[in-house]
Specification:
The complex is a heterodimer.
Chain A lengths: L1 H18 L4 H4 L11 H20 L4 H5 L3 E2 L6 H4 L10 H19 L3 H22 L2 E2 L15 E2 L1 H19 L20 H18 L4 H6 L4 H9 L10 E4 L24 E2 L1 H10 L3 H5 L5 E4 L6 E6 L5 E8 L20 H5 L34 E5 L1 H14 L8 H15 L10 H6 L11 H12 L5 H9 L29 H12 L2 E2 L14 E2 L11
Parallel strand pairs in A: 6-8
Antiparallel strand pairs in A: 1-5, 2-3, 4-9, 7-8, 10-11
Chain B lengths: L24 H5 L2 E9 L1 H12 L2 E3 L11 E9 H9 L4 E6 L2 E6 L14 H5 L2 E10 L10 E4 L5 E3 L5 E7 L4 E5 L6 E4 L8 E3 L9 E4 L3 E4 L7 E5 H4 L18 E5 L8 E5 L12 E4 L2 E3 L6 E2 L2 E2 L12 E7 L2 H4 L10 E6 L8 E17 L34 E3 L7 E3 L6 H5 L3 E14 L2 E13 L6 E14 L4 E14 L12 H6 L33 H7 L2 E17 L4 E24 L2 E28 L3 E23 L18 E23 L3 E12 L8 E12 H4 L6 E15 L11 E6 L2 E5 L3 E2 L7 E14 L4 E20 L8 E24 L3 E18 L6 E7 L2 E6 L6 E4 L17 E2 L15 E5 L4 E11 L2 E11 L2 E4 H8 L18 H7 L1 H4 L3 E2 L16 H4 L6 E2 L1 E6 L5 E6 L10 H9 L7 E3 L2 E12 L2 H6 L4 E15 L11 E3 L4 E3 L1 E2 L6 E12 L1
The chains are: A mainly alpha, B mainly beta.
Chain lengths: ~550, ~1200
């Protein structure tokens, strides 16, 4: 009796538990993350990650900051890449991840019939794809991002087709942004770039149109054959774009977490990046021009060689913006092979060992090789998590003015205004961007009047514009693309360059997926590259010294 | 009273006779007994003695006619003496046979008894004597001690040593019953025969080896159609282990155990029959007493390895481990059993002696660092050349030490002091670890049930200062027989494991070990022991360079610890409705909660303002099982065993992680103390439900053929609705050939077995639909995104199938046993995270695809080469060979990438073996017509370069061993025993990142000089004469002494004395027509000279093949010398058992590679997984342990 009770109740309990099947589909509902979200949250992801990726590409210590000779890597092991151009396969994962999410934003925008979001998505798509084709040449474009529909091995589109798509999308974006309805709004908080202002977005889209039209300046005929009138695009875009620094597509770092902070701040670099040195050509150029931006970007040396000093003496030095530094003046023996400047850059492309000892003169002290007191450091603002003058600039008003100056100079683009006016506006915009006109004793007119600055006195006006564009583009990517197109500024490599006396012209494709289906596409793209004499014999044509379509048949940059 | 001679037949009162314990006659008779007799008859006295001395008296009742009552008292008297005193007066003598004492009358002269009075019943019929011999049917050997009983009476006898017997019977109808342990009993009608020779059939029961199989069912091993590994408690606890898995190493064929980093308590990887799944961790399912428990491979937190959760179980509580190696064995467990099952049975009170027993054991083990990677102590920090000290650098390519060079050093107060080497930096830092283990268990065994209660604690102090590990376990196993038919069981296993600080192994700058490995030999590590800057305690650590943390500061101020509370519980009711039909219901739960915590103090290199991370995990799995089983034997020919069951499985896990990367107040480790904006939050909940029904049938025929069939169907919540239900069957056959055929007598058993099975598997929860994840906040702005993993709403359950055949043989009365198995496992349609090009928008996709096949064979050998009175030698050998091949992947996908690090690509192409490692080769001249054919092509900067063409990727090795072999030997001599477990793993290779980094950092001896060359012959001539020796290598040295060249010019000549080096090959240029010209870089005029650091670095670092090493090794994993206290002594101490052992682990290791990197550690922890084949800076020294173990049973 007792036993059967136990058994029956047991059976009842078991039966109850086994029979009362919960809805298994409900159990598998993910409680942690949603399947659909507002496009606003995706937008903030796309914008911040695009800006960070673009900024990182040109920031201090990047391959391009070395290629453009803004900086040198001192003694760091990265010198092989940065100072000596021994580049290896790059990665584009981050870009495609952004593009995928951008695509999701676009789909959400279409679903919600929000044309503002559509325009933003098209603009960002053009921005990222444009950057990629600039870097690599042919890229997966038209068939990209379709893994969800089982398209895993997209073909590489020709560079011309990519540029064409970009210019078309940007035009569409500009048109959409000019005709938004009341329902076409985005959250101001999520639009970390423009706070939800459509007018700014339109200017931004048009600035990008100008950039990409001008990018094809040496390929006008081929573009026209493909149905793109780059001069018309340029002109149309120029009529509705940035007119002041306030319009810049620019974002600040927040500075509270690793992810939202600048690379040099303690959150990202607990060992401060002292090994990143200003490069000598850049520092010397700024010094020669008396350019106040130098003092925004660099610090004086800690130890300065001085022929007039008999014993080592600490002196207080004030820069153009009133910041004071203690500099030890060191007695320089007559004839000593030392740089007596207050701002000393590191020569380009030295072997590590030579870089370590640079400008040490007869000082036998063992210094931390990364902190040689005889070479300037970057300004301390590059070692903070966030700072007024350290911003992620996607495209600036200054660049727009430089483009207009070049177009006006050429004369065939039909832009209004003179080259000189645009050139002046560009330089002013850049100075203002760094609030450099407040430098003590600075006068723009005096600065501009110099033979080395004024456009009128330049023997090669394009070179002059490009040189100022290079300075204004400090730690950004665009100067490299500009140099590649125009060949200016005429930068020279150093003694330890890994592939000869030239600066690289493209990024190496990411290590290819070895799947045969993939390799067909990859090999086809590589086949179209034109290896220069700097590519070692026997090495893959997928090399930083191979020319992509954009550069083929042009003499620039070399 | 006299008895006639005829009456002197021996009557044996047969009860069950146990001869299990071999007790000598003298032994038995010298047992001491104490008696207090008050007015008892002889029969009563004998019965009392029976109980006390555990003997049995056998006699014809008529023998004892004495009715007198005795009263006396003896204390601790020998049994012999007591018997003499009682029996002598009755003219009885006795003879010891086994545990029986046979009483016979003393023969008197003249055999007066012949004429004496006869007992009434004996007078009725004439007696006649039957004699004969009893032999074994198998080999005809005589059987001594066989019991013979006349049917229907208490009368009997037993055979003598030669197997002969003699018995008196009455009449013609007498039937004799012959019974003998290990043989089938036999009844023989005497008839008119007077000589009766009987041959007894060996019973199959002899070979009965009970094995725990799926669902905890104990089966006779001979009936199993698949291979099951079985390890008993004694083999598991020979040497004390923190993690019981370590004790399995080498003991079971087909099982590979690797302790992936060398520290005590670190994660142990168990792979059974090959890593067949490409994307899960291939760990088997663990089941403790029927309760599935959680275990996983990835136990990393904040850079430390917290160890497997299975280490929560106290090895001393384990009675037995069964390893179900493949789907055939494990099919009933379903989904999770694809990688095999490890069934752990814990000790219970059952089977022990009645009443209470207490068992104590304690062990103290010292963990001693035995060997460090040898480093050079000749040159100090720096990388600018052999004459410049740069203490800030992690590299040691600096100036010569102990040679009079004077430099300002970090603690020389700005003074130049001589550079001296401090070669003992490892020895000075590491300490001897200790592990203390104590266990007490009490078990009780009663008619109404049994219990075992055990308490164990383990405390470990690691070899890295201030690291530890502890475990406290409490286990209670109870069984209560509610009635004869209804039994209740309750098991509780409660454990608390934890560590205040686990050593970091991620090779980050938070790893104290890396800090030492990147320390220049000129630094005296003992100077860093006071790790705070004076006056800045808690704020600023004392460092000798800014690029690295002080190792003591890391160890003492930046702890990473955990605390895990776990309860494994079970309630079970068994009801035997009839002797054939029974029901079982079980509720079981494995639940743990775990707190993980990582602290970073102010001034930490990677967290200047400190940091704090805390994570809480709680995980719970609840199973409800209901099983009905029915067994029946049909007329001794057929046996049937049918089982049907249902299972409900529910898993829930909760995870919360909060972290801050900046503390406001130093030293206060709370999330609330995180600086505003620096706090990150994360939480995840998962829930999974699975229903299963299963059934199995075991059919036996004549006890020599057995067929097992199983089937299971699951419904899992993690699969799409339409694919949610999946069915999988299995079948296995066992055939005892030795019973079917007549085999030579030296073959004791020959068994053929074959099994074929499928196991279905579901996927992880939430694998079906794409969702958005939250990125860290951008200030006040929320960000959401989809990651690069493409989910799949059409996933099907994966089906893994396996076929195995095997042969089990036993020879020479089981002195030698061999078990061999060949298996093929096909993992089809597995759910793969397949890598796809990111251009498609995702870098990986979940698909059902492919066919991954593991093939292998395993061999187990058990032998007792010597079996003697005083000396015994047992050997157990396991041999394992496995290869896993990808036969097919998804349409259009030709390879699977496992890992990629430092240029070593661990990937497998379709048709290739899992474990292949590839690299991009060195770029070389391929123009065969060129005189430089085969010469490396250097960059303009004079460095070796890789050939980046993806089509030229080159295979450089495979990480799998060719075979594994484990040999355990036990030698017993009298009271001593020696146990040794040797583990041999042959073949395979691994890429050593440690060697790469140590070389790169100039710490290795081999980084002192390049290829040896002759100073007196121009180097380019030497190279051209013998290119093989030079191409691809570093030529030069640190200074003239080590082969450096005097090639520097200009100012370099002053500072860079004779350390010029170079990479050997040609540089290319194009002439005016665009034709390639080669410029020699052979040490001649156009050579690009390099400093030794770069010359070495570019010849090794980009090419993993330069740091590939053989993975062959032999380890003495365990050794134990045990002394069992002599019986006499234990008796005196009133103990049942006592032993003391000296134990050792990993005291010896030989590696084929000859480098001091343990190939067993060729795993790299990669954030969320362990990657095999690439060893990543796992630079813990080799440690061995020695200790003392004490065991006492009351």
């Amino acid at each position: 009796m007792k036993i059967s009770k136990v058994i029956y109740s047991l059976a009842a309990v078991m039966g109850f538990l086994l029979m009362s099947c919960e809805d298994l589909s409900e159990v598998n509902q993910n409680p942690n993350s949603p399947e659909e979200v507002s496009a606003n949250y995706i937008m903030s992801y796309v914008l911040t990650h695009s800006a960070k990726a673009y900024y990182a590409l040109g920031a201090e210590g990047s391959d391009l900051s070395g290629a453009m000779q803004y900086i040198q890597m001192g003694t760091n092991e990265g010198a092989m890449k940065v100072n000596q151009y021994g580049w290896s396969a790059a990665s584009w994962s981050e870009y495609y991840n952004i593009l995928k999410n951008n695509d999701l934003m676009y789909q959400a925008a279409v679903r919600d019939n929000n044309r503002f979001f559509q325009a933003i998505a098209l603009t960002m798509k053009s921005f990222v794809f444009g950057l990629m084709t600039d870097l690599f040449g042919d890229i997966p474009y038209s068939e990209a991002l379709q893994a969800a529909s089982e398209q895993y091995y997209p073909k590489y589109d020709s560079q011309l087709d990519v540029y064409k798509g970009i210019l078309t999308d940007l035009k569409t974006a500009s048109t959409l942004l000019g005709s938004l309805g009341t329902a076409d709004v985005v959250s101001a908080g999520s639009d970390v770039l423009y706070g939800g202002k459509a007018a700014n977005w339109k200017k931004f889209a048009n600035a990008l149109r100008m950039r990409y039209a001008l990018r094809l300046s040496a390929k006008k005929a081929e573009a026209a054959a493909a149905g793109i009138d780059i001069t018309a695009e340029f002109k149309d875009a120029a009529s509705a774009t940035f007119a002041a620094n306030a319009d810049d597509a620019s974002m600040a770092f927040i500075g509270t977490t690793k992810d939202n902070s600048a690379a040099g701040g303690l959150l990202n670099a607990s060992n401060p990046l002292y090994y990143i040195k200003p490069s000598k050509p850049f520092v010397d150029k700024l010094t020669a021009l008396g350019d106040p931006r130098r003092d925004r970007w660099f610090q004086p040396v800690l130890n300065k060689w001085d022929a007039k000093t008999a014993t080592a003496t600490d002196k207080s030095v004030t820069n153009a913006f009133g910041e004071t530094f203690t500099v030890k003046y060191m007695p320089a023996k007559p004839g000593a092979n030392v740089d007596t400047s207050l701002y000393v850059g590191l020569p380009v492309g030295l072997a590590i060992v030579d870089a370590t000892g640079y400008n040490k003169g007869d000082d036998g002290t063992a210094y931390n090789p990364e902190r040689s007191p005889y070479i300037s450091f970057l300004h301390s603002r590059y070692r903070t998590n966030t700072e007024t003058y350290v911003k992620m600039n996607l495209i600036t008003y200054a660049e727009v003015e430089f483009m207009l100056a070049e177009a006006a100079l050429d004369g065939s683009w039909g832009v209004s205004g003179t080259a000189e006016d645009h050139y002046k506006s560009a330089i002013k915009a850049s100075l203002d961007k760094y609030n450099a006109q407040v430098a003590s004793g600075f006068s723009f007119d005096r600065y501009y009047a110099q033979n080395a600055v004024s456009l009128a006195s330049a023997s090669n006006k394009l070179e002059r514009i490009s040189e100022q564009k290079w300075i204004a583009g400090w730690l950004s990517v665009e100067p490299w693309f500009n140099w590649r197109r125009t060949g200016f500024p005429a930068l020279k490599t150093g003694p330890a360059a890994q592939f000869g006396a030239a600066i690289p012209v493209r990024f190496v494709y990411p290590i290819a997926n070895a799947d045969i289906k993939y390799l067909v596409n990859y090999n086809a793209a590589v086949d179209k590259l034109e290896p220069s004499g700097f590519v070692p014999t026997g090495q893959s044509k997928d090399h930083q010294y191979s020319k992509m379509w954009l550069l083929k048949g042009t003499s620039a940059p070399w | 009273m006299r008895l006639s001679f005829v009456q002197l037949c021996i009557a044996v009162s047969i009860a069950t006779v146990s001869i299990a314990g071999k007790v000598g006659a003298q032994d038995l008779l010298s047992r001491r007994i104490s008696l207090s007799v008050q007015n008892q008859s002889v029969v009563q006295i004998l019965s009392t003695i029976e109980k006390q001395a555990q003997v049995r008296f056998t006699y014809r009742p008529e023998l004892i006619t004495e009715t007198r009552k005795y009263s006396f008292e003896v204390t601790e008297e020998k049994l012999a003496k007591v018997l003499d005193e009682i029996l002598d007066p009755m003219r009885l003598k006795y003879k010891v046979m086994g545990k029986q004492i046979v009483l016979t009358p003393v023969k008197s002269n003249g055999d007066s008894s012949m004429n004496g009075e006869m007992l009434p019943e004996l007078r009725e019929a004439p007696l006649r004597t039957v004699t004969g011999k009893v032999t074994s049917s198998k080999d005809g050997a005589p059987l001594p001690g066989v019991n013979i009983l006349i049917k229907g009476t208490q009368t009997g006898t037993s055979t003598d040593v030669a197997g002969n017997f003699s018995i008196d019977v009455t009449g013609q109808g007498a039937v004799l019953i012959f019974s003998y342990i290990g043989f089938n009993s036999q009844s023989v009608e005497v008839g008119s025969q007077s000589v009766l020779n009987v041959s007894l059939q060996e019973s199959v029961e002899t070979l009965k080896e009970a094995v725990v199989t799926a669902m905890g069912i104990t089966r006779d091993k001979r009936s199993l159609g698949y291979s099951v590994g079985n390890v008993q408690a004694e083999a598991l606890t020979q040497t004390p282990q923190n993690n019981v898995l370590n004790a399995l190493s080498g003991k079971v064929a087909g099982v590979q155990i690797s302790q992936m980093d060398g520290t005590a308590g670190s994660t142990v990887n168990v792979i059974i029959r090959g890593a067949n799944s490409l994307n899960n961790d291939n760990q088997p399912l663990f089941v403790i007493d029927g309760v599935p428990v959680a275990n996983k491979l990835d136990n990393s937190f904040a850079g430390a390895d917290m160890g497997n959760a299975i280490s929560d179980i106290n090895p001393n509580d384990i009675a037995n481990i069964s390893v179900l190696k493949g789907p055939s064995a494990a099919a009933l467990y379903g989904s999770r059993a694809g990688n095999g099952v490890i069934l752990i049975t814990t000790k219970s009170g059952r089977g022990g002696k009645k009443g209470l027993g207490v068992s104590l054991n304690t062990a103290m083990v010292l963990e001693v660092p035995l060997r460090y990677v040898p480093v050079q102590n000749k040159f100090g920090s720096g990388k600018s050349g052999a004459h410049i000290l740069e203490e800030q650098e992690n590299e040691s390519w600096g100036p010569r030490l102990d040679a009079g060079e004077q430099w300002v050093q970090w603690n020389s107060n700005g003074q130049k002091v001589p550079l001296v080497s401090h070669p003992n930096r490892f020895k000075d830092f590491f300490q001897t670890g200790t592990t203390n283990t104590n266990n007490v268990s009490v078990n009780g065994n009663y008619d109404k049930g049994n219990f075992r209660l055990s308490v164990g604690n383990m405390k470990n102090k690691g070899i890295v200062p201030n690291t530890d590990l502890s475990r406290l376990t409490l286990a209670l196993n109870t069984t209560y027989n509610i009635t004869d038919k209804l039994r209740a069981q309750a098991n509780f296993n409660v454990s608390e494991s934890g560590s205040d600080n686990r050593p970091l192994i991620d090779a980050s700058r938070n790893s104290p070990v890396r800090s030492i490995y990147e320390m220049g030999a000129q630094v005296n590590i003992l100077d860093l022991k006071d790790y705070w800057m004076p006056g800045q305690e808690g704020m600023q650590q004392r460092v000798y360079k800014t690029k690295q943390n002080n190792p003591y500061f890391i160890a003492y101020e930046n702890p990473t610890g955990f605390k895990r509370n776990r309860t494994v519980s079970k309630l079970q009711l068994d009801y035997d409705i009839t002797s054939e039909f029974s029901l079982m219901g079980r509720f079981s739960r494995d639940a743990y909660e775990e707190k993980l915590e990582a602290k970073k103090a102010y001034s930490n290199y990677e967290a200047v303002k400190g940091g704090y991370e805390v994570e809480m995990n709680d995980r719970k799995e609840t199973n409800l099982d209901f099983i009905a089983s029915w067994k029946k034997n049909f007329n001794e020919t057929w046996s049937l065993n049918i089982l049907a069951g249902a299972n409900r499985l529910e898993q829930r896990s909760n995870f919360i992680n909060n972290a801050t990367t900046e503390l406001v107040s130093p030293g206060l480790y709370t999330i609330a103390n995180g600086a505003p904006g620096t706090i990150t939050y994360n939480s995840q909940w998962t829930h999974k439900l699975l229903y299963g029904v299963y059934s199995s049938a075991s059919i036996g025929f004549k006890n020599y053929a057995f067929l097992d069939l199983t089937a299971r169907n699951d419904w899992s919540s993690t699969l799409p609705k339409n694919n949610r239900s999946y069915f999988y069957p299995s079948a296995s056959l066992s055939l005892i050939l030795s019973d079917v055929f007549t085999l030579p007598s030296w073959i004791s058993l020959a068994k053929f077995r074959a099994g074929s099975a499928q196991v279905g598997n579901d996927v992880a929860p939430y694998s079906l639909r794409q969702t958005y994840l939250a990125d860290t906040d951008w200030g006040p702005t929320k960000r959401m995104y989809q990651n690069d993993i493409l989910k799949n709403n059409n996933l099907k359950p994966e089906i893994s199938s396996a076929n195995e055949i095997g042969l089990d043989l036993k020879f020479l009365k089981n002195r030698l046993g061999v078990e061999g198995t060949y298996y093929v496992r096909n993992n089809k349609n597995q759910v793969l995270t397949i890598g796809i090009p990111i251009e498609s928008g995702s870098s990986s996709k979940l698909i059902n695809a492919g066919l991954v096949q593991s093939r292998g064979f395993e061999l187990g050998i058990n032998a007792t080469p010597v079996e003697g009175r005083n000396f015994n030698w047992d050997v157990n050998v396991s041999f394992t060979r496995n290869r896993t091949r990808i036969k097919r992947l998804a349409e259009g996908i030709t390879y699977f990438s496992f890992n990629s690090y430092s240029g070593a690509e661990v990937r497998t192409y379709v048709g290739g073996d899992v474990g292949d490692i590839y690299q991009q080769p060195m770029l070389k001249v391929t123009d065969q017509s060129s005189p430089y054919y085969g010469y490396p092509i250097l960059t303009s900067g004079g460095l070796y370069q890789t050939d980046t063409d993806i089509n030229h990727i080159q295979k450089i090795g495979n990480y799998n061993h060719d075979f594994l072999m484990g040999v355990q030997q036990t030698f017993r001599y009298k009271n001593f025993s020696l146990f040794a477990n040797i583990d041999w793993r042959q073949g395979g290779s691994f890429y050593s990142n440690t060697m790469m980094f140590l070389g790169n950092n100039g710490q290795l001896e081999e980084s002192l000089s390049g290829v040896p060359h002759d100073r007196n012959t121009p180097i380019d001539q030497q190279i051209k004469a013998n290119p093989e020796a030079f191409l691809g290598k570093w030529v030069g040295g640190r200074n003239a002494e080590y082969g450096g060249f005097d090639a520097w010019t200009g100012t370099k000549k002053d500072t860079r004395v004779q350390d010029a080096s170079f990479n050997v090959g040609v540089r290319t240029a194009k002439d005016a027509e665009g034709k390639t010209t080669y410029i020699e870089n052979l040490g001649g005029a156009n050579t690009v000279w390099l400093d030794p650091f770069n010359a070495y670095r570019y010849s090794t670092r980009p090419f993993p093949s330069e740091n590939m090493y053989s993975a062959t090794y032999v380890k003495l994993r365990e050794v134990a010398v045990t002394y069992h206290l002599a019986k006499g002594l234990t008796d005196k101490l009133k103990l049942q058992n006592a032993s003391v052992s000296i134990v050792g682990n990993n005291l010896f290791e030989w590696t084929a590679a000859g480098v001091s990197i343990d190939p067993e550690r060729a795993f790299r922890q990669d954030g969320s997984a362990w990657m095999q084949g690439v060893e990543y800076y796992n630079v813990m020294p080799w440690t061995g342990s020695v200790g003392l173990k004490l065991n006492v049973d009351f």
